[in-house]
């Protein structure tokens, strides 16, 4: 078995992740398509904006932002104090005309990660190792990381731009198309496992398409590298519930959890239905979630005898069943799955003759980000989760999708029971979203679970900013604040349940009259908020 991290020749000997802008002599254009060579560089003490020009904001989260960027013709000295202005300018871009004017092969994605939101130095070291592991991955169906940069407050990743959206917007699809897509995913899984990496979060949202409709697996944030000949037993309960293997829920598993997730994805590609969404819509979400977990642990997926499976072959059904086995020992290896009769039979078919499928179109990035921004500001955390449950209860098809018209209809229906949202607010949201300059069809559908997760993450960012402002207002010139004053800010800024969790993380007592450093408190609370919302996201 290969070991990715054992030898990394592109790292400077002077620094663990070192170098300066001179390293970029190794990154030049090659080939007719203008793409960059695969020489990965990790540059320290240089802002990525000095080499990459932001075009527009694609996603905004509590831990990181994602911008569409293109390579600068020459190095530009962007001072740290100017970074916010550069990013804000890109954020204000309405993007569609700008993006259309740039050749697709010149576009990349810049992920800006705030180090203060990650945790201690040990966690940062683990992230650096993950980045280096990712940089060694070389497979046509893996989203490639081009460069990485690190400064005092940020880590920047430059990656391929997948402009074709994700699989969540393309289900269900024809059997021949599903087989070809599944074969590509299995090829990636085989490559990862052969090289000592488990992805641990294979799902529709993490399988993207580039401008040439090539499948790209993304998001290796939960990937785990096991660097010995014996597969390491993992215990962290990570991933996304609907595609999570039963042994992951039981907190004792190995790389074969990825095969279960491929089975869930294939089930969805063929039927458009999540296999473990069995409970009745009238059941409260908390109870439904527990029932869903129980069904996963029992391997009790929805029947394949319904109308959604009427035109699906027996070979396809047998293939899915072979992956959704409770005992990992009973699942095929990636190579065995690739050699299955269904995959081999479909691989011999001409996909161009069977390319039609019911494509559900998701929102464009700027329009989607505006919707997320408004909802994360207007709704409380409990209202976000309540609205998610309401959408699920109204999801008659059980496919996790909602049209724009139904989304705003549901917002109207629940607004009377929300403190921060009125019917007038809903009309204003619709007007604000429409004013982004990106037109949308009211019948277009989007994955509402994915949308509400983005809203919840955005809520975390808003809370951090409000907390930081309150600390600045209440602290003295030395950036110190008393514990009782800090407790008052907690009670004013955070919802009750979250306030108690975050306060417990600080390990302080309200009657303690000592002074604490606001910078340290902000760092700790920021990390705790991110963890709180991660727990909330994974549990819902």
From TrEMBL:
Residues in Protein kinase domain copies: 52-343
Keyword Transmembrane helix in annotation: no
Nucleotide-binding listed as a keyword: yes
Pfam family, one: Pkinase
Top-level taxon: Eukaryota
Signal peptide: none
InterPro entries: CDPK_Ser/Thr_kinases, EF-hand-dom_pair, Kinase-like_dom_sf, Prot_kinase_dom, Ser/Thr_kinase_AS
GO molecular function: ATP binding; protein serine/threonine kinase activity
PANTHER family xrefs: SERINE/THREONINE-PROTEIN KINASE
Identification of the protein by name: Protein kinase domain-containing protein
Species assigned in the record: Cyclotella cryptica
């Amino acid at each position: 078995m290969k070991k990715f991290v054992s030898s990394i020749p592109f790292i400077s000997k002077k620094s663990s992740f070192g170098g300066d802008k001179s390293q970029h002599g190794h990154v030049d254009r090659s080939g007719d398509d203008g793409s960059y060579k695969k020489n990965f560089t990790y540059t320290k003490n240089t802002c990525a904006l000095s080499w990459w020009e932001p075009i527009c904001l694609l996603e905004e989260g509590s831990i990181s932002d994602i911008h569409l960027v293109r390579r600068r013709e020459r190095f530009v000295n962007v001072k740290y104090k100017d970074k916010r202005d550069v990013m804000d300018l890109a954020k204000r871009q309405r993007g569609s005309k700008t993006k259309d004017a740039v050749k697709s092969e010149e576009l990349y994605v810049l992920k800006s990660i705030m180090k203060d939101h990650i945790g201690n130095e040990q966690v940062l070291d683990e992230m650096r190792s993950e980045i280096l592991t990712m940089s060694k991955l070389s497979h046509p169906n893996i989203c490639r990381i081009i460069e990485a940069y690190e400064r005092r407050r940020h880590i920047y990743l430059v990656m391929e731009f997948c402009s074709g959206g994700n699989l969540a917007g393309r289900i269900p699809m024809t059997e021949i198309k599903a087989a070809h897509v599944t074969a590509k995913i299995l090829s990636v899984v085989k490559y990862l496992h052969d090289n000592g990496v488990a992805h641990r979060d294979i799902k529709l949202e993490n399988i993207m398409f580039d401008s040439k409709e090539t499948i790209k697996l993304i998001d290796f944030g939960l990937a785990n590298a096991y660097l010995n000949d014996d597969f390491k037993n993992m215990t962290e309960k990570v991933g996304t519930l609907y595609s999570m293997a039963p042994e992951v829920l039981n907190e004792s598993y190995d790389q074969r959890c990825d095969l279960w997730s491929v089975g869930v994805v294939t089930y969805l590609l063929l039927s458009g239905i999540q296999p473990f969404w069995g409970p009745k819509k009238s059941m409260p979400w908390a109870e439904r979630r527990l029932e869903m977990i129980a069904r996963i642990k029992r391997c009790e997926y929805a029947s394949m005898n319904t109308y959604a499976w009427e035109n699906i072959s027996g070979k396809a059904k047998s293939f899915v069943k072979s992956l959704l086995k409770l005992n990992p020992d009973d699942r095929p290896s990636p190579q065995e799955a690739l050699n299955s009769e269904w995959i081999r039979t479909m691989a011999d078919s001409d996909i161009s003759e069977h390319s039609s499928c019911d494509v559900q179109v998701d929102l464009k990035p700027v329009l989607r980000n505006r919707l997320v921004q408004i909802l994360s500001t207007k709704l409380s955390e409990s209202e976000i989760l309540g609205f998610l449950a309401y959408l699920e209860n109204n999801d008659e098809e059980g496919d996790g999708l909602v049209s724009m018209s139904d989304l705003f209809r549901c917002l109207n229906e629940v607004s009377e029971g929300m403190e921060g949202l009125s019917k007038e607010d809903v009309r204003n949201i619709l007007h604000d979203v429409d004013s982004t300059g990106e037109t949308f069809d009211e019948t277009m559908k989007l994955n509402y679970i994915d949308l509400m997760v983005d809203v919840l993450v955005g809520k975390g960012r808003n809370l951090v900013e409000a907390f930081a402002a309150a600390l600045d207002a209440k602290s003295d010139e030395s950036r110190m604040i008393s514990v009782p004053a800090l407790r008052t800010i907690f009670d004013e800024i955070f919802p009750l349940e979250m306030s108690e969790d975050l306060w417990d993380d600080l390990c302080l007592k309200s009657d303690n009259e000592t002074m604490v450093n606001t910078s340290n408190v902000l760092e700790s609370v920021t990390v705790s908020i991110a963890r709180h919302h991660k727990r909330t996201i994974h549990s819902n």
